[in-house]
Amino acid sequence: MVREIHQWYSPALQKEMPIAVYGHYGFALLMIPTAAADFLEYERFELIHHLAPMIDAGKIKVFSINSINTESWMNKQMEGAHKAIRQNQFNEYIFNEVVPFIQNFTSNETSIITTGASFGALHAMNIFLKRPDLFKGVIAMSGVYDLMEYTDGYYDDQVYFNSPIHYIPNLTDHETLEKIRSGKMIIASGSGSHEDPEANRRFSGVLHNKSIPHDLEIWAHDIHHDWPTWRKMLPYFIDSKF
User: Fold this and answer.
1) What is the reported pTM?
2) Phi, psi of 170 (to 5 degrees)
3) Other C-beta atoms within 10 Å of 160: how many?
4) pLDDT of 36 above 90
5) Which helix (H) or strand (E) covers residue 50, if one does?
6) Residue 14: CB atoms within 10 Å
7) 156 burial class (0-12, 13-18, 19+ CB within 10 angstroms)?
8) Is 63 helix (H, G, I), strand (E, B) or coil?
9) Three-state SS for 120?
């Protein structure tokens, strides 16, 4: 498997940001880490290994980035408004820096699908919904789509605009909605420990009310909020849905 590490100073985030690239061809899979983890998390926990057959076959080319959650919603010392600012800077880093990097490594026509597990699922969903002109779909695993789950009660306009369960019901722009509707959306949860299938059902209902097609996959009670689940889910979805 081709594996490369790249890094640049991000103007949006004002810091060095690394990215891991796996593979040589295929649609681009942009992986966003869980919680406080880094760009090599999916490799350390062997999810990249489980994707290897599809990477080597040229079905997917994987791009894995760093999170900045410890500089935003997971930082207990920061004020809520500053956390929201950092969240928006992270979004801009993805839109204006990561996407052009991916396009330079593939092409302007290559589809980019976002994915993540746990907190990474919320980020993956959010960036797809905010910029469906850049991304063609999302695979969101074991997530909740209410940013208030992470804000310790803080709420302002920027929380609203980064919380899909809040802003999607009020989204009326026809062109944006049509681009979202044309994408491939998979929302998946187990029913085991630390999973929240009801949160996924609620968000599915929000999408249904906006006539947004999506696949809701609620797996069994032996499917827990942990790496064995995501090592099963992601290869299965890529193999069977894309």
Assistant:
1) 0.97
2) -100, 5
3) 14
4) no
5) helix 47-56
6) 10
7) exposed
8) strand
9) helix
Could you read off the pLDDT of 138-191 as tens digits, one per residue?
999 999 999 999 999 999 999 999 999 999 999 999 999 999 999 999 999 999
Task: Retrieve residue 6's tokens.
Answer: 């790249």
What type of residue sits at position 228?
P
pLDDT, tens digit, for every residue of 67-104? 999 999 999 899 989 999 999 999 999 999 999 999 99
Which residue's entry shows tokens 């990249």?
48
Spell out the domains of the chain, with CATH numbers in brackets.
Answer: 3-241 (3.40.50.1820)
Angle at 199 between CA 193 and CA 202, to 5 degrees: 150
* Structure token pair of residue 212: 């947004």
SS3 140: strand
- Cα(91)–Cα(137) distance, integer angstroms: 16
Q: How far apart are CA 38 and CA 64, in angstroms?
A: 9
Q: What is the DSSP letter of 169?
A: G
